[in-house]
Amino acid sequence: MSAESPRASRLEPYLSRTEPAPTLLKMLVGVQLAGIREGAGFAQEQAARALGFSPAKLSRIEAGKGRRPPTESDVRALLELYKADDYEASVLLKLLERAGEPGWWQRYDKRLMPEWFDRLVGLQEAAAAIRTFEIQYVPGLLQTAAYTRAVVERGLPTAPACEVQRRVELRMRRRELLHRADAPQLWAVIDESVLLRVLGSRAVMREQLEYLVEMAGLPHVTVQIVPLDLTNASAPAIPVTYLRFGGLDLPDIVYLEHIKSANFLEDRDETEEYRVALDRLADEALNPRESLALLRDTLEQRYPAP
Known about the structure:
434 Repressor (Amino-terminal Domain), DUF5753, Endonuclease, Chain A, 50% helix, 2 domains, alpha/beta, 6-stranded mixed sheet, 13 helices, elongated
């Protein structure tokens, strides 16, 4: 058994997951292939050239990008080039097979799931920790169905009712990850203006804030509010989602969403800048207990029960 094999043995628990996690598994396959390549003494460009791959193709494989995992023939060719031992090759090929199983979100129409959004949902499903900052809306994983409907109808005023309903169903399915036994840690920092902006109706907002209070009570959910009277807050100008994964050398990823596209940042220097910015913002925001008090005060004063 080679020196690489203990690392491969850490992958075996992922082979028995009940719910497919194709995004995570593609990333794990890529990271392992990159590690084996480096251990075999190949530069990325050198390995690509030896197999007739373009450098971009091998880069995508090692980054775990794209809707589909790499082909078995490509992975076998790489393993043979690197002279990977039989045990490691066997585990990696089984992992690759599981990576081809569709996640629940991949059963939705591509109109609702463009490739960049498909990747986000897959990353959230695989993350050990999710940090998010929102300046306009309640974070998607903490939204109620009625609030989501109001957000969708505001953003897509001409969408047919059936599409609106599918988008609401998708959002509700996404938030189920916070109720799994292995739920990720969620740390949400929200601008106070989000609590004051009425979407749908005051009844919708009351229900939404009540749900925020409920979710903030979970041990793996932290909610902080950036108050309006905080001057010179170091808040980013756009929403930010920061994803961290459990070990296995996977990089942290920052997700920045635009109107019809998104950027995924994986370079360590770039993601570190956002981590520091989110840390600074969390220090400036109300602490979780103060934030919960503000949520309850806003409920009573702005959205009182009928």
